[in-house]
Amino acid sequence: MKFKELPVAGAFLIDAEPFTDERGTFRRHFCRDEFAKHGLDPNVGQGNISENPKKGTLRGVHFQYMPAIEGKTLSCVTGAVYNITVDLRPDSATFLKWAAVELSAKVRNSLYVPAGCGNAWLTLEDHTHVHYYMTSVYAPGRDAGIRYNDPLFKFPWPSEPVVISAKDLSYPDLDPKTLKG
After folding, report:
1. What is the CATH number of the domain that holds 72?
2. Pairwise CA distance, residues 174 & 146, whole Å
3. Is position 132 annotated as part of the catalytic site?
């Protein structure tokens, strides 16, 4: 596994080092020791799979408030996503900075999103499945979001979403004063 730090402090793009032989291909998706060595939280509290039938499906920008903040490790099992991670940690050197990466099943890369950051993705292909681990469990009532097109950030989405939930559309623009370190 190769870790490349992104412009958001603590966020990493993780490139796989696949092994291929006559049986097919094998790669590590997660390694507690490698994560800890790079300062990433190696705890896994929950794992999810998001199945997105249509290209242009947008999910996010999601995060959880204290004390339920969570880190995430995401990978595409099928298809591809354009992913944005935004730093919502007031005490971070990269507060309100964001990073965009493309994750795909073909490239076999992953993304680590540190706890306290918001995350969103837009599917780039039909039948995109995203597998992700969180460092803590989902906490109803502590979940939150900001609009995918919040003018504070001017996120450069590769296309307009064609599928987005009413909940994601209802998120407000971010007021940074509402975030606590």
Report:
1. 2.60.120.10
2. 6
3. yes
Distance in angstroms (rounded) separating the CA atoms of residues 105 and 114: 22
The dihedral formed by the CA atoms of 87, 50, 19 and 100, expressed in degrees to the nearest 10: -30
Cα 99 to Cα 9: distance, rounded to the nearest angstrom = 10
Query: Is 123 domain-assigned?
Result: yes
- Count: domains in the chain: 1
| Residue-wise pLDDT tens digits, 101-111 | 999 999 999 99
**Burial, 55: exposed, middle or buried (Cβ in 10 Å; 0-12, 13-18, 19+)?**
middle
User: What are the structure tokens assigned to 22, written together?
Assistant: 């006559």
Q: Is 171 a catalytic residue?
A: no
Q: Are 8 and 99 in contact (CB under 8 A)?
A: yes
Query: What tokens does 67 get?
Result: 């004390």
pTM for the whole thing?
Answer: 0.93
Q: Which of 62, 82, 112, 133 does the annotation list as catalytic? A: 62
Q: How far apart are CA 146 and CA 60, in angstroms?
A: 8
Query: Residue 130: its pLDDT value, please?
Result: 98
What range does the domain containing 103 cover? 2-17+27-139
Q: Is 162 within the bounds of a domain?
A: no
Of 112, 132, 133, 148, the catalytic one is 132
